[in-house]
Amino acid sequence: MQPVHKSNKLANVCYDIRGPVLEHAKKMEDEGHRIIKLNIGNPAPFGFFAPDEIIEDVIVNLPAASGYSDSKGLFAARKAIMHYAQQKSLPNVAMDDIIIGNGVSELIVMAMQALLDNGDEVLVPAPDYPLWTAAVSLAGGKAVHYVCDEEQGWFPSIDDIRAKITPSSRAIVIINPNNPTGAVYPPALLQQIVDLARQHQLIIYADEIYDKVLYDAVKHTSIASLAPDLFVVTLNGLSKNYRACGYRAGWMVLSGEKTHAKDYIEGLNMLASMRLCANVPSQYAIQTALGGYQSIDDLVAPGGRLARQRDLAHKLLTEIPGVSCVKPQGALYLFPKLDPKVYPIADDQQFILELLQQEKVLLVQGSGFNWIAHDHFRVVFLPNSDDLIEAIGRIASFLERYRKRHGSEV
To answer: SUPFAM superfamilies per the record (predicted)?
Structure first.
């Protein structure tokens, strides 16, 4: 039999958050090992559950959820999203400008498939949430990574963005609050990005899935609110703010000046119709989630569980010799740096694999987020304090042995 090869369209597609190191972790679990998983932002396994009122709404409405909904989503859910867009000051948003999807992940892929021809370029942050790069590649486009500057709090470098815009550039992606760095972008920086997008006629894609996961009284600004004259696609959902990842309830909001984007919007509507609709039961959670008590505020407030665990994980990591980390202002992750003079790492995936094998702690290497060097990794701080202390203690032990092995004791 002839071998069956994967499509050439997948040649540049990579998603290391669930990549080969995770496969090795699964084998270790099958052999009876307990793995501490700090690799994925999935709140439920760590005791962060969807609010009861959301669960109750899904249960009560389940008998009505057997059929397809409108391809864009249920009326009540889209109405609630429209009101939320208005609260965030997104301009020129009507019901028809909202499409509900099976999580933001589906909508990212849909948005890129509708936009890109072969060779089109999209500006994507480095580091990024790797699905963006993968979706651009899968659609035949080229992800051009602009650098976020660790020395400047992981804010995007405006000069680097400007230098990487070409005649083939179609759009720019903004992940704010950022995954994996936890940076939250101030309005002045967002305005500079808007000005570049206006100058070069770029679509702005704003991934705002963590817009309520904010610490230290930091405020989130939707970039679309600063761009009434531009076409902006804002993506959000229930996964993180409402700890409902498995519900797969996300949405995209089309805002601003849409006249020149009619053909593209027709393409989005076509793709939304082709998958018939997003799953209907979870759509019944959206109105209650957005309009009900915002329990995430308690978790991120000083003394709240997420805030405590962020502070603890940051303290423990930065106490390790040769490890530094910008403290995140949002999201669920730390993105610490390993001093290359202390930790000379040639292959960070191999480095993370060795950590897994020796200490049974699962992380994701920085290159898995399209970072430009082999000197970072991402840590999820969702586990409770005792597990974080144990996990980071194991990381510290591994790094101590690594320093000694390479003769780079500090």
So the answer is: PLP-dependent transferases
